[in-house]
Amino acid sequence: MTMSLNCSTRRRLQKLHQIASVWEGDRRPLSTHKQDLEARGECILWVDGSQGVVRAMDVVAAESGPEAVVRTLLRAMEHPNSPAKPARPQKIVVSDRELQFFLRGVLQELDIAIDYVPQLPLIDELYRGFQAFGDESTPDLPPQFAEPLKKKALEIWRAAPWEFLEEHQIVAIELNQSDVGTLYASIMGMLGMEYGILLYRSQESLRQFRASVLSDDEESPELLEEAFLKQDCLFLTFERATEEEDEDIDIIDLADLPVTQIQPSFGNIHPLEGLRAVLYEEEATVVFLALEALVRFIRSKRRQLSAETFPALSDRYRIALPIKDQNRKSLQVEVTVSTMPELAAELEEIAGFGDEAEFTAVEDLPSLGALRDDLIPEDSFLSLGVVSWEMVAHLRAAVTHFAQSEAISSGGDGLPVILIQTSRPKAKNLIEAIQSMGGLKGIGFNPGTDIFGGDRYDLGILQTENGELFLFGEFLDDDPVHIAARKKWDERCKKTKGYCGLIIARGLMGASRGQPQLRDMMALFEARSLSPQDLGIGTLQLMPQFE
After folding, report:
1. Looking at 356-483, which runs of residues are DSSP E strands?
2. HSE-up (13 A, CA, CB side) for residue 246
3. Do residues 508 and 496 touch, judged by C-beta distance below 8 A?
4. Per-residue pLDDT tens for 310-331?
5. Whole-structure pTM over 0.85, yes or no?
6. With contact defined as beta carbons under 8 Å apart, do 24 and 123 qualify?
7. How many Å apart are CA 72 and CA 165, to the nearest integer?
8. SS3 (DSSP) at 17
9. Angle at 218 between CA 214 and CA 220, to 5 degrees
Protein backbone atom coordinates (compact mmCIF):
# COMPACT_ATOMS: atom_id res chain seq x y z
CA MET A 1 0.00 0.00 0.00
CA THR A 2 1.45 3.40 -1.03
CA MET A 3 1.59 5.89 1.81
CA SER A 4 0.39 9.43 1.05
CA LEU A 5 -0.20 12.75 2.77
CA ASN A 6 -3.68 13.51 4.06
CA CYS A 7 -5.73 15.96 2.01
CA SER A 8 -5.47 18.95 4.36
CA THR A 9 -1.68 18.68 4.53
CA ARG A 10 -1.43 18.37 0.78
CA ARG A 11 -3.60 21.48 0.28
CA ARG A 12 -1.50 23.41 2.81
CA LEU A 13 1.72 22.52 1.00
CA GLN A 14 0.27 23.37 -2.39
CA LYS A 15 -0.30 26.92 -1.14
CA LEU A 16 3.42 27.39 -0.50
CA HIS A 17 5.33 29.47 -3.04
CA GLN A 18 7.24 27.19 -5.42
CA ILE A 19 10.80 28.31 -6.06
CA ALA A 20 13.09 27.36 -8.94
CA SER A 21 15.48 25.41 -6.75
CA VAL A 22 16.89 21.92 -6.60
CA TRP A 23 17.06 20.39 -3.13
CA GLU A 24 19.36 17.55 -2.12
CA GLY A 25 18.11 15.06 0.46
CA ASP A 26 19.77 12.10 2.18
CA ARG A 27 20.22 10.18 5.46
CA ARG A 28 23.60 8.98 6.61
CA PRO A 29 25.15 7.48 9.76
CA LEU A 30 26.73 9.93 12.19
CA SER A 31 29.73 7.66 12.73
CA THR A 32 31.92 5.76 10.33
CA HIS A 33 32.63 3.13 13.02
CA LYS A 34 30.26 0.19 12.72
CA GLN A 35 29.98 -0.37 16.47
CA ASP A 36 28.78 3.22 16.93
CA LEU A 37 26.10 3.27 14.25
CA GLU A 38 23.26 2.02 16.38
CA ALA A 39 24.24 4.11 19.38
CA ARG A 40 24.66 7.37 17.45
CA GLY A 41 21.84 7.08 14.91
CA GLU A 42 21.60 8.72 11.50
CA CYS A 43 21.44 12.28 10.25
CA ILE A 44 18.77 13.45 7.75
CA LEU A 45 19.67 16.51 5.67
CA TRP A 46 17.69 18.65 3.22
CA VAL A 47 19.86 21.21 1.46
CA ASP A 48 18.89 23.94 -1.04
CA GLY A 49 21.53 23.59 -3.77
CA SER A 50 20.62 26.93 -5.39
CA GLN A 51 20.92 29.00 -2.20
CA GLY A 52 23.54 26.82 -0.52
CA VAL A 53 21.69 26.55 2.81
CA VAL A 54 20.61 23.67 5.03
CA ARG A 55 16.83 23.98 5.23
CA ALA A 56 16.31 21.20 7.78
CA MET A 57 18.33 18.57 9.66
CA ASP A 58 17.30 15.79 12.04
CA VAL A 59 19.03 13.00 13.94
CA VAL A 60 16.99 9.80 14.07
CA ALA A 61 17.43 6.22 15.18
CA ALA A 62 19.10 4.01 12.59
CA GLU A 63 16.09 1.69 12.47
CA SER A 64 13.57 4.47 11.70
CA GLY A 65 11.83 4.15 8.32
CA PRO A 66 11.69 6.48 5.29
CA GLU A 67 8.80 8.35 6.92
CA ALA A 68 11.43 10.19 9.01
CA VAL A 69 12.93 11.61 5.80
CA VAL A 70 9.50 12.92 4.78
CA ARG A 71 8.91 14.54 8.17
CA THR A 72 12.21 16.43 7.85
CA LEU A 73 11.33 17.44 4.27
CA LEU A 74 7.96 18.87 5.36
CA ARG A 75 9.75 20.91 7.99
CA ALA A 76 12.21 22.11 5.33
CA MET A 77 9.23 23.35 3.33
CA GLU A 78 7.06 24.89 6.06
CA HIS A 79 9.51 25.75 8.86
CA PRO A 80 13.00 25.95 7.38
CA ASN A 81 16.12 27.03 9.22
CA SER A 82 16.88 30.75 9.05
CA PRO A 83 17.45 32.61 6.69
CA ALA A 84 15.42 30.39 4.35
CA LYS A 85 11.68 31.06 3.99
CA PRO A 86 8.77 28.62 3.56
CA ALA A 87 8.61 27.28 -0.01
CA ARG A 88 8.23 24.27 -2.25
CA PRO A 89 11.18 23.21 -4.43
CA GLN A 90 10.82 22.63 -8.11
CA LYS A 91 12.99 19.55 -7.96
CA ILE A 92 14.37 17.08 -5.39
CA VAL A 93 17.38 14.81 -5.98
CA VAL A 94 18.33 11.80 -3.84
CA SER A 95 21.03 9.15 -4.15
CA ASP A 96 18.86 6.23 -3.00
CA ARG A 97 16.52 4.49 -5.48
CA GLU A 98 14.15 3.18 -2.82
CA LEU A 99 13.89 6.62 -1.26
CA GLN A 100 13.21 8.14 -4.70
CA PHE A 101 10.25 5.80 -5.32
CA PHE A 102 8.92 6.33 -1.79
CA LEU A 103 8.99 10.12 -2.16
CA ARG A 104 7.28 9.96 -5.56
CA GLY A 105 4.36 8.15 -3.96
CA VAL A 106 4.11 10.44 -0.95
CA LEU A 107 4.58 13.78 -2.72
CA GLN A 108 2.31 13.23 -5.69
CA GLU A 109 0.14 16.22 -6.66
CA LEU A 110 2.72 18.68 -5.23
CA ASP A 111 4.30 19.33 -8.65
CA ILE A 112 7.78 18.41 -7.43
CA ALA A 113 10.11 16.45 -9.71
CA ILE A 114 11.98 13.71 -7.83
CA ASP A 115 15.12 12.38 -9.51
CA TYR A 116 17.93 10.00 -8.69
CA VAL A 117 21.59 11.07 -8.91
CA PRO A 118 24.57 8.95 -7.86
CA GLN A 119 26.24 11.76 -5.90
CA LEU A 120 25.03 14.73 -3.85
CA PRO A 121 27.92 17.25 -3.85
CA LEU A 122 26.58 19.63 -1.19
CA ILE A 123 25.64 16.88 1.27
CA ASP A 124 28.90 15.05 0.54
CA GLU A 125 30.83 18.20 1.48
CA LEU A 126 28.78 18.73 4.65
CA TYR A 127 29.22 15.14 5.73
CA ARG A 128 33.00 15.30 5.19
CA GLY A 129 32.98 18.27 7.56
CA PHE A 130 31.03 16.27 10.15
CA GLN A 131 33.54 13.43 9.90
CA ALA A 132 36.52 15.77 10.19
CA PHE A 133 34.98 17.31 13.31
CA GLY A 134 34.43 13.85 14.82
CA ASP A 135 37.95 12.73 14.00
CA GLU A 136 39.38 15.88 15.62
CA SER A 137 37.50 15.46 18.90
CA THR A 138 39.90 15.65 21.83
CA PRO A 139 40.36 12.52 23.96
CA ASP A 140 40.10 12.87 27.73
CA LEU A 141 43.82 12.09 28.05
CA PRO A 142 46.67 12.22 25.52
CA PRO A 143 47.16 8.68 24.12
CA GLN A 144 50.72 8.36 25.43
CA PHE A 145 49.58 9.27 28.96
CA ALA A 146 46.19 7.51 29.14
CA GLU A 147 47.31 4.17 30.58
CA PRO A 148 50.22 5.49 32.71
CA LEU A 149 47.95 8.07 34.35
CA LYS A 150 45.18 5.57 35.08
CA LYS A 151 47.71 3.13 36.51
CA LYS A 152 49.22 5.86 38.68
CA ALA A 153 45.78 6.94 39.87
CA LEU A 154 45.00 3.41 41.06
CA GLU A 155 48.34 3.35 42.91
CA ILE A 156 47.14 6.47 44.74
CA TRP A 157 43.83 4.72 45.48
CA ARG A 158 45.62 1.72 46.99
CA ALA A 159 47.91 3.97 49.03
CA ALA A 160 44.78 5.76 50.41
CA PRO A 161 46.45 8.95 51.72
CA TRP A 162 43.03 10.20 52.95
CA GLU A 163 43.24 7.65 55.76
CA PHE A 164 45.78 9.87 57.53
CA LEU A 165 45.84 13.23 55.68
CA GLU A 166 43.08 15.83 55.86
CA GLU A 167 42.21 18.34 53.14
CA HIS A 168 44.00 21.25 54.86
CA GLN A 169 47.26 19.27 55.29
CA ILE A 170 48.87 20.44 52.07
CA VAL A 171 51.78 18.74 50.32
CA ALA A 172 53.90 20.89 47.99
CA ILE A 173 55.21 19.23 44.81
CA GLU A 174 57.97 21.25 43.14
CA LEU A 175 58.16 20.35 39.43
CA ASN A 176 59.56 23.29 37.46
CA GLN A 177 58.09 21.68 34.35
CA SER A 178 55.84 23.00 31.54
CA ASP A 179 55.64 26.49 33.07
CA VAL A 180 54.51 24.97 36.38
CA GLY A 181 56.73 25.70 39.36
CA THR A 182 55.00 24.09 42.35
CA LEU A 183 51.66 22.32 42.74
CA TYR A 184 49.93 22.23 46.11
CA ALA A 185 48.17 18.92 46.73
CA SER A 186 45.03 18.78 48.85
CA ILE A 187 43.87 15.23 49.68
CA MET A 188 40.10 14.60 49.66
CA GLY A 189 38.50 11.57 51.27
CA MET A 190 38.88 11.50 55.04
CA LEU A 191 35.18 12.28 55.45
CA GLY A 192 34.27 9.25 53.33
CA MET A 193 32.44 11.33 50.70
CA GLU A 194 34.53 12.54 47.75
CA TYR A 195 37.91 10.94 47.08
CA GLY A 196 40.66 12.54 45.05
CA ILE A 197 43.61 14.94 44.78
CA LEU A 198 43.34 18.64 43.99
CA LEU A 199 46.58 20.05 42.58
CA TYR A 200 46.42 23.82 43.03
CA ARG A 201 48.67 25.99 40.88
CA SER A 202 49.04 28.59 43.63
CA GLN A 203 48.62 28.96 47.37
CA GLU A 204 46.43 32.00 46.71
CA SER A 205 43.82 29.94 44.85
CA LEU A 206 43.85 27.35 47.63
CA ARG A 207 43.31 29.98 50.32
CA GLN A 208 40.59 31.80 48.38
CA PHE A 209 38.57 28.65 47.75
CA ARG A 210 38.68 27.44 51.35
CA ALA A 211 37.81 30.93 52.63
CA SER A 212 34.89 31.11 50.16
CA VAL A 213 33.29 27.78 50.98
CA LEU A 214 33.63 28.38 54.72
CA SER A 215 32.19 31.89 54.54
CA ASP A 216 28.66 32.46 55.85
CA ASP A 217 27.94 34.33 52.61
CA GLU A 218 28.57 31.21 50.46
CA GLU A 219 25.67 29.06 51.66
CA SER A 220 23.57 28.95 48.48
CA PRO A 221 24.31 26.28 45.83
CA GLU A 222 24.82 29.01 43.23
CA LEU A 223 27.51 30.76 45.26
CA LEU A 224 29.21 27.47 46.10
CA GLU A 225 29.29 26.56 42.41
CA GLU A 226 30.77 29.96 41.57
CA ALA A 227 33.46 29.49 44.24
CA PHE A 228 34.17 26.00 42.90
CA LEU A 229 34.67 27.27 39.34
CA LYS A 230 37.02 30.04 40.52
CA GLN A 231 39.62 27.49 41.58
CA ASP A 232 42.86 27.21 39.64
CA CYS A 233 43.83 23.56 39.82
CA LEU A 234 44.24 20.22 38.13
CA PHE A 235 42.36 17.33 39.67
CA LEU A 236 42.10 13.58 40.03
CA THR A 237 38.83 12.21 41.37
CA PHE A 238 37.52 8.69 41.84
CA GLU A 239 34.09 7.38 40.89
CA ARG A 240 32.33 4.05 40.74
CA ALA A 241 33.15 2.32 37.45
CA THR A 242 29.82 0.51 37.05
CA GLU A 243 26.49 2.03 37.93
CA GLU A 244 23.33 0.03 38.49
CA GLU A 245 20.08 1.82 37.79
CA ASP A 246 18.20 0.16 40.62
CA GLU A 247 20.77 1.02 43.25
CA ASP A 248 21.22 4.34 45.03
CA ILE A 249 24.95 4.47 44.54
CA ASP A 250 25.27 7.98 45.98
CA ILE A 251 25.21 6.62 49.52
CA ILE A 252 27.93 4.01 49.01
CA ASP A 253 31.36 4.80 50.41
CA LEU A 254 33.79 4.12 47.55
CA ALA A 255 36.32 2.83 50.08
CA ASP A 256 34.03 -0.16 50.65
CA LEU A 257 34.25 -1.21 46.98
CA PRO A 258 36.90 -3.44 45.38
CA VAL A 259 39.52 -1.62 43.31
CA THR A 260 38.06 -3.18 40.13
CA GLN A 261 35.01 -0.93 40.59
CA ILE A 262 37.02 2.28 40.96
CA GLN A 263 37.28 4.63 37.96
CA PRO A 264 39.72 7.59 38.03
CA SER A 265 38.83 10.86 36.28
CA PHE A 266 41.11 13.77 35.45
CA GLY A 267 40.52 17.38 34.58
CA ASN A 268 41.24 21.07 34.97
CA ILE A 269 39.49 23.96 36.70
CA HIS A 270 40.31 27.59 35.91
CA PRO A 271 38.35 30.81 36.57
CA LEU A 272 38.34 31.67 32.85
CA GLU A 273 37.87 28.14 31.49
CA GLY A 274 35.58 26.62 34.08
CA LEU A 275 35.65 22.87 34.53
CA ARG A 276 37.17 20.79 31.74
CA ALA A 277 37.28 16.97 31.97
CA VAL A 278 40.19 16.84 29.52
CA LEU A 279 43.95 17.04 30.06
CA TYR A 280 46.22 18.24 27.27
CA GLU A 281 49.77 16.95 26.94
CA GLU A 282 51.49 19.60 29.08
CA GLU A 283 48.86 19.19 31.80
CA ALA A 284 49.06 15.40 31.64
CA THR A 285 52.84 15.64 32.02
CA VAL A 286 52.71 17.63 35.26
CA VAL A 287 49.85 15.52 36.68
CA PHE A 288 51.82 12.32 36.00
CA LEU A 289 54.92 13.75 37.68
CA ALA A 290 52.90 15.01 40.64
CA LEU A 291 51.09 11.72 41.22
CA GLU A 292 54.24 9.61 40.86
CA ALA A 293 56.11 11.83 43.31
CA LEU A 294 53.16 11.91 45.71
CA VAL A 295 52.67 8.15 45.79
CA ARG A 296 56.40 7.61 46.44
CA PHE A 297 56.30 10.18 49.23
CA ILE A 298 53.22 8.59 50.82
CA ARG A 299 54.74 5.11 50.78
CA SER A 300 58.06 6.17 52.26
CA LYS A 301 56.67 8.61 54.86
CA ARG A 302 53.43 6.86 55.81
CA ARG A 303 54.38 6.33 59.46
CA GLN A 304 55.47 9.94 59.97
CA LEU A 305 52.43 11.31 58.11
CA SER A 306 50.12 9.25 60.33
CA ALA A 307 51.39 11.03 63.46
CA GLU A 308 48.98 13.16 65.47
CA THR A 309 50.85 16.35 64.48
CA PHE A 310 51.39 17.14 60.78
CA PRO A 311 55.20 16.91 60.48
CA ALA A 312 57.69 18.86 58.40
CA LEU A 313 59.02 16.37 55.84
CA SER A 314 60.74 16.63 52.49
CA ASP A 315 62.22 14.31 49.88
CA ARG A 316 63.43 14.41 46.27
CA TYR A 317 62.73 11.93 43.49
CA ARG A 318 63.97 11.40 39.96
CA ILE A 319 61.03 10.42 37.77
CA ALA A 320 60.97 9.05 34.22
CA LEU A 321 58.17 10.29 31.99
CA PRO A 322 56.30 7.75 29.82
CA ILE A 323 57.53 9.54 26.68
CA LYS A 324 60.91 9.60 24.97
CA ASP A 325 63.05 12.37 23.51
CA GLN A 326 64.39 12.57 19.95
CA ASN A 327 67.12 10.06 20.83
CA ARG A 328 64.55 7.52 22.05
CA LYS A 329 65.64 8.05 25.66
CA SER A 330 63.25 8.43 28.58
CA LEU A 331 62.94 11.97 29.90
CA GLN A 332 64.00 12.28 33.54
CA VAL A 333 62.67 15.00 35.84
CA GLU A 334 63.67 15.83 39.42
CA VAL A 335 60.72 16.50 41.72
CA THR A 336 60.79 17.70 45.33
CA VAL A 337 57.90 16.88 47.69
CA SER A 338 57.45 18.68 51.01
CA THR A 339 54.77 18.95 53.65
CA MET A 340 53.57 22.43 54.64
CA PRO A 341 52.70 22.43 58.37
CA GLU A 342 52.52 26.23 58.58
CA LEU A 343 50.06 26.47 55.69
CA ALA A 344 48.05 23.61 57.21
CA ALA A 345 47.80 25.53 60.49
CA GLU A 346 46.72 28.65 58.61
CA LEU A 347 44.01 26.78 56.69
CA GLU A 348 42.86 25.13 59.91
CA GLU A 349 42.51 28.58 61.44
CA ILE A 350 40.51 29.78 58.41
CA ALA A 351 38.16 26.84 58.98
CA GLY A 352 37.67 28.02 62.55
CA PHE A 353 38.96 24.84 64.16
CA GLY A 354 41.65 26.51 66.24
CA ASP A 355 42.88 23.97 68.73
CA GLU A 356 39.56 22.09 68.72
CA ALA A 357 39.09 18.73 67.07
CA GLU A 358 36.85 18.47 64.04
CA PHE A 359 34.65 16.13 66.04
CA THR A 360 33.70 17.10 69.58
CA ALA A 361 35.56 14.90 72.01
CA VAL A 362 33.30 12.77 74.17
CA GLU A 363 34.78 14.07 77.41
CA ASP A 364 33.80 17.61 76.41
CA LEU A 365 30.09 16.76 76.17
CA PRO A 366 27.77 17.26 79.14
CA SER A 367 27.03 14.16 81.18
CA LEU A 368 23.42 12.94 81.13
CA GLY A 369 23.35 11.58 84.66
CA ALA A 370 24.62 8.05 85.27
CA LEU A 371 24.17 6.94 81.65
CA ARG A 372 25.24 8.86 78.55
CA ASP A 373 24.09 8.36 74.96
CA ASP A 374 26.60 10.55 73.11
CA LEU A 375 29.23 7.96 72.16
CA ILE A 376 27.73 5.76 69.44
CA PRO A 377 27.18 7.52 66.07
CA GLU A 378 23.59 7.90 64.93
CA ASP A 379 22.31 5.43 62.30
CA SER A 380 25.00 2.89 63.19
CA PHE A 381 24.34 -0.76 62.43
CA LEU A 382 24.35 -2.79 65.65
CA SER A 383 24.32 -6.53 66.25
CA LEU A 384 25.12 -9.14 68.91
CA GLY A 385 27.07 -12.12 67.68
CA VAL A 386 30.21 -14.18 67.88
CA VAL A 387 33.52 -14.37 66.00
CA SER A 388 35.51 -17.57 65.80
CA TRP A 389 38.77 -17.81 67.70
CA GLU A 390 40.57 -18.04 64.36
CA MET A 391 39.03 -14.70 63.34
CA VAL A 392 39.97 -13.23 66.73
CA ALA A 393 43.59 -14.18 66.03
CA HIS A 394 43.42 -12.47 62.61
CA LEU A 395 41.86 -9.35 64.17
CA ARG A 396 44.51 -9.14 66.87
CA ALA A 397 47.16 -9.14 64.14
CA ALA A 398 45.45 -6.99 61.50
CA VAL A 399 43.47 -4.22 63.23
CA THR A 400 43.76 -1.79 66.13
CA HIS A 401 43.59 -4.18 69.10
CA PHE A 402 43.09 -3.51 72.80
CA ALA A 403 43.57 -6.59 74.94
CA GLN A 404 42.68 -7.30 78.56
CA SER A 405 45.52 -7.63 81.05
CA GLU A 406 44.58 -11.27 81.63
CA ALA A 407 44.55 -13.92 78.94
CA ILE A 408 41.07 -14.66 77.59
CA SER A 409 39.81 -18.22 77.90
CA SER A 410 39.15 -19.54 74.38
CA GLY A 411 36.16 -21.64 75.33
CA GLY A 412 33.05 -22.23 73.26
CA ASP A 413 32.61 -21.45 69.57
CA GLY A 414 34.24 -18.02 69.72
CA LEU A 415 34.36 -14.61 71.36
CA PRO A 416 30.93 -13.01 71.96
CA VAL A 417 31.01 -9.53 70.43
CA ILE A 418 28.98 -6.39 69.92
CA LEU A 419 29.42 -5.14 66.34
CA ILE A 420 29.04 -1.43 65.69
CA GLN A 421 29.26 -0.59 61.99
CA THR A 422 29.30 3.01 60.83
CA SER A 423 31.07 5.21 58.28
CA ARG A 424 34.86 5.19 58.30
CA PRO A 425 35.32 8.72 59.70
CA LYS A 426 32.79 8.09 62.48
CA ALA A 427 34.36 4.73 63.25
CA LYS A 428 37.75 6.40 63.56
CA ASN A 429 36.33 9.05 65.86
CA LEU A 430 34.60 6.40 68.00
CA ILE A 431 37.85 4.46 68.42
CA GLU A 432 39.73 7.61 69.41
CA ALA A 433 36.99 8.56 71.90
CA ILE A 434 37.15 5.20 73.65
CA GLN A 435 40.95 5.39 73.72
CA SER A 436 40.80 8.88 75.23
CA MET A 437 38.86 7.43 78.19
CA GLY A 438 41.44 4.74 78.87
CA GLY A 439 39.86 2.04 76.73
CA LEU A 440 36.88 -0.26 77.19
CA LYS A 441 36.36 -1.90 80.57
CA GLY A 442 33.17 -3.87 80.08
CA ILE A 443 29.95 -4.56 78.17
CA GLY A 444 26.66 -5.25 79.90
CA PHE A 445 22.90 -5.11 79.78
CA ASN A 446 20.65 -3.32 82.26
CA PRO A 447 16.85 -3.14 82.63
CA GLY A 448 14.99 0.05 81.69
CA THR A 449 11.37 1.12 81.57
CA ASP A 450 9.18 3.72 79.87
CA ILE A 451 6.95 4.94 82.70
CA PHE A 452 4.53 6.55 80.23
CA GLY A 453 4.30 3.94 77.47
CA GLY A 454 4.70 0.97 79.80
CA ASP A 455 7.39 -0.69 77.64
CA ARG A 456 10.30 -2.45 79.29
CA TYR A 457 13.75 -2.40 77.73
CA ASP A 458 17.04 -4.26 77.84
CA LEU A 459 19.65 -1.49 77.60
CA GLY A 460 23.06 -2.27 76.10
CA ILE A 461 25.78 -0.41 78.00
CA LEU A 462 29.52 0.14 77.49
CA GLN A 463 31.73 1.05 80.44
CA THR A 464 35.04 2.78 79.75
CA GLU A 465 38.09 2.51 81.97
CA ASN A 466 37.43 5.94 83.48
CA GLY A 467 34.09 4.71 84.81
CA GLU A 468 31.77 6.40 82.29
CA LEU A 469 28.68 4.46 81.15
CA PHE A 470 27.42 4.79 77.57
CA LEU A 471 24.22 3.50 76.00
CA PHE A 472 24.85 1.55 72.80
CA GLY A 473 21.43 0.00 72.19
CA GLU A 474 17.79 -0.13 73.37
CA PHE A 475 16.06 -3.50 72.93
CA LEU A 476 12.45 -4.29 73.78
CA ASP A 477 12.44 -6.73 76.67
CA ASP A 478 9.85 -8.98 74.98
CA ASP A 479 11.39 -9.00 71.48
CA PRO A 480 11.87 -12.71 70.66
CA VAL A 481 14.86 -11.99 68.38
CA HIS A 482 16.67 -10.08 71.12
CA ILE A 483 15.70 -12.64 73.74
CA ALA A 484 17.37 -15.38 71.67
CA ALA A 485 20.44 -13.21 71.01
CA ARG A 486 20.77 -12.34 74.73
CA LYS A 487 20.48 -15.99 75.71
CA LYS A 488 23.32 -16.94 73.35
CA TRP A 489 25.35 -13.93 74.57
CA ASP A 490 25.07 -15.02 78.21
CA GLU A 491 25.91 -18.64 77.37
CA ARG A 492 28.97 -17.67 75.37
CA CYS A 493 30.22 -15.25 78.04
CA LYS A 494 30.06 -18.10 80.59
CA LYS A 495 32.21 -20.28 78.31
CA THR A 496 34.81 -17.49 77.97
CA LYS A 497 34.73 -16.95 81.76
CA GLY A 498 33.18 -13.52 81.42
CA TYR A 499 35.12 -12.11 78.48
CA CYS A 500 33.61 -10.49 75.38
CA GLY A 501 34.51 -7.89 72.78
CA LEU A 502 33.49 -4.80 70.84
CA ILE A 503 34.23 -4.68 67.09
CA ILE A 504 34.07 -1.32 65.34
CA ALA A 505 33.73 -1.61 61.58
CA ARG A 506 33.32 0.65 58.58
CA GLY A 507 31.06 0.13 55.56
CA LEU A 508 27.68 1.28 56.86
CA MET A 509 26.21 1.96 53.40
CA GLY A 510 28.19 -0.44 51.25
CA ALA A 511 27.69 -4.03 50.20
CA SER A 512 29.25 -5.18 53.49
CA ARG A 513 26.53 -3.57 55.65
CA GLY A 514 25.66 -6.04 58.39
CA GLN A 515 28.30 -8.47 57.15
CA PRO A 516 31.66 -6.70 57.44
CA GLN A 517 34.72 -8.48 56.14
CA LEU A 518 38.09 -8.48 57.85
CA ARG A 519 39.17 -5.50 55.75
CA ASP A 520 36.16 -3.51 57.06
CA MET A 521 36.96 -4.09 60.75
CA MET A 522 38.94 -1.22 62.25
CA ALA A 523 39.25 -2.10 65.95
CA LEU A 524 38.72 -4.88 68.48
CA PHE A 525 38.28 -3.94 72.12
CA GLU A 526 38.40 -6.93 74.48
CA ALA A 527 36.37 -6.41 77.65
CA ARG A 528 34.62 -8.05 80.60
CA SER A 529 30.96 -9.03 80.56
CA LEU A 530 29.09 -6.93 83.14
CA SER A 531 25.93 -7.85 85.03
CA PRO A 532 23.34 -5.28 86.19
CA GLN A 533 24.88 -5.65 89.66
CA ASP A 534 28.33 -4.82 88.28
CA LEU A 535 26.89 -1.71 86.62
CA GLY A 536 25.12 -0.71 89.86
CA ILE A 537 22.65 1.78 88.36
CA GLY A 538 19.38 -0.04 89.01
CA THR A 539 16.39 0.00 86.68
CA LEU A 540 16.55 3.13 84.52
CA GLN A 541 13.44 5.09 83.64
CA LEU A 542 12.85 6.87 80.35
CA MET A 543 11.98 10.44 81.24
CA PRO A 544 10.45 13.04 78.88
CA GLN A 545 12.61 16.06 78.01
CA PHE A 546 11.04 19.50 77.84
CA GLU A 547 12.66 22.53 76.23
Report:
1. 381-387, 400-402, 415-421, 440-450, 456-464, 469-476
2. 0
3. no
4. 999 999 999 998 877 666 677 8
5. no
6. yes
7. 59
8. coil
9. 130
